[in-house]
Every structure is written in C-alpha cells, then in structure tokens.
Write a structure and sequence with these properties.
binds zinc ion, alpha/beta, 11-stranded mixed sheet, 3-stranded antiparallel sheet, 14 strands, about 290 residues, Rossmann fold, single chain
Length: about 290
C-alpha cells in the first residue's frame, strides 16, 4: 500500500527491540517507500493510550534481520516522513557492571561506537553535516521514562549510562569485554548506533531504554564473593573463579519480565509526552550544516 501524503501521521515513533511489542488501537498497517530501501517491516500506526504512535519492529517480523543488516536509515527516514518528533527505542543489552543486574533498565545517555560497516548519515556529499553528539539522547524523554519507571513495583531503573555498541552479530571476546569495562561502558548491545545519530540528523527527540538480559563475558563466579571479573583466581579472595553458566530458561524468563515492565513504562510515559513541546533536539542541525 502506498502512503498518500498526509494520510497517516504520528508524532511518536517506537522502534521495538527484541521482545518489545505494544497493542495499538485503530491500527493500520502501512508501507512507507524510502530513498534508502525497505524499512525493517511495514509500520503499524494507530492509537496508544490516547496518542498516535507508529511502531516498527526493529528486527522485522519474526526477528529475522540481524543487527549488522538493519536498514537504520530507512527506519528513521520513514518515521520522520510520518511526522514523528519523538522516538522511543527499547534495546535488549548485556551488562558490563556487577551492579547492573539482569532485569534492570538503563536510560542511556552516552554511547561508544564500535560498529564498523554501517552508514551513519543522511548527508553523503554536496551538503556536509557535522552534527553534535555531545549529549545524544533526549533528556526530556529520559526524565519522563525515569519518573514512570521508578514507580513501577520491583523495577530497578537508572537514569544515565554508557552503551557500547558493537557491530555483531558475534558476541565479544573476554579481552574485548574487559576493555569495554575499562573504557567506562555500562552495557553492551548492537543497535543504538547509528539509530541515535540518524534521529539527530532528522531533529527528532530520541531515547534508548536498555533492558538487561544477561551478564557479558567479563563476569565470573567466586563461591566466596559472587560475581567478580573472570580470572584464574578471584581478585578479592584468591579462590578459583568459575565461568558464569548461561541458563537459557533464566534468560528467557528475564526477557519476559523485561517485556512486561517495558509495556508498563510505555503505558505510563506515552500519554505524558508533550509532542508540541519545543525541545533542543528539534534544532540539532543548527550550526551543523556546511
Ligand atoms: Zn528532545
Ligand atoms: Zn572471591
């Protein structure tokens, strides 16, 4: 179906990560043609808690598109074309810190880009764009999400944290994981970059709700001290350190719990978003174009 101009509009966009989904009322499913090729899937557009929203499942129907094959430009361009002014982007991540336990949510405020082969700009020549990424995530949206999240029973949520974005689809070596910790990373994932910078180039408020589903490979287990950095001997007590066994059932359980909490946080936050508000994100191109 071709999008007729002005037929479908939404101010809020959601790029749903692994396990993220919402029920939309008066839903229509539309295809948006972009100069960059196909979006991850057709876009679901309709009402959610009194607001018009547009939803794209980031990895496509049935979770078939791996992170390194995502068409980030098509997704962000399509949402911009629909009139979206705020993008909420949930992302399942691994933890780089003991204090970021499974099930915790982090409202990302910084990233470190370790991707290698992704196109991360709409400006490929002619007009040149050097956009600021000093504070890449929208603090207005992060504040709203934080207020919602801290009132959800049993949810551990933190405002601010550094997302190390790797190319994938492989996971890290232990040396890489230890290095990312030294760099100050809090969590590790494969999708916030370049979504975040493309949203900035379209002057859209953008936030990333990182939902922690596992500990990355830096972690080991000491019988005496619990989770410690993996090494032959525990850095605290010298006992031997075991690998942290991955329990698939436990991972699935955590992801299910995260999906429920994500649904709750969206239900509380989305009605509160003032889409007419003039945010500094809407002026991000000022002084960026040559
Ligand atoms: Zn903003
Ligand atoms: Zn120990």
């Amino acid at each position: 179906m071709k999008l007729k101009k002005n037929e479908h509009k939404a101010k809020i966009g959601i790029i749903g990560g692994t396990g993220a989904n919402i029920e939309i009322e008066n839903e229509e499913i539309i295809k948006v043609y972009t100069p960059y090729g196909q979006t991850s899937d057709n876009i679901r557009i309709g009402d959610f808690k009194g607001k018009k929203v547009a939803f794209i499942p980031r990895h496509g129907k049935g979770h078939v598109i791996p992170p390194h094959k995502l068409n980030f430009r098509a997704n962000v361009w399509a949402l911009s074309e629909l009139g979206v002014r705020c993008i909420i982007s949930p992302s399942a991540v691994g933890s780089l810190r003991k204090e970021h336990e499974k099930g915790k949510f982090i409202l990302v405020d910084q990233y470190i880009d370790r991707t290698k082969k992704r196109i991360d700009t709409f400006y490929e020549g002619g007009q040149v764009c050097h956009i600021s990424q000093e504070d890449p995530y929208c603090s207005y949206l992060n504040n709203l999400l934080y207020e919602a999240g801290r009132n959800i029973n049993g949810l551990n949520i933190q405002k601010g944290g550094t997302y190390v974005c790797i190319e994938g689809p492989r996971f890290s070596t232990r040396s890489e994981s230890l290095m990312f910790r030294k760099w100050g990373g809090d969590i590790i994932g494969m999708t916030t970059y370049p979504e975040v910078v493309l949203a900035a180039e379209k002057q859209i408020c953008y936030c990333c709700i990182a939902t922690i589903s596992d500990l990355d490979v830096w972690a080991g287990y000491c019988e005496n001290c619990g989770i410690v950095e993996f090494a032959e001997a525990c850095e605290n007590c010298g006992r031997s350190v075991k690998k942290v066994a991955v329990d698939v059932d436990e991972v699935l359980e955590t992801m299910e719990e995260n999906a429920k909490n994500l649904q709750k946080i969206l239900e509380i936050t989305i009605p509160k978003i003032d889409t007419e508000r003039d945010c500094e994100c809407h002026h991000s191109l000022k002084g960026s174009l040559l």
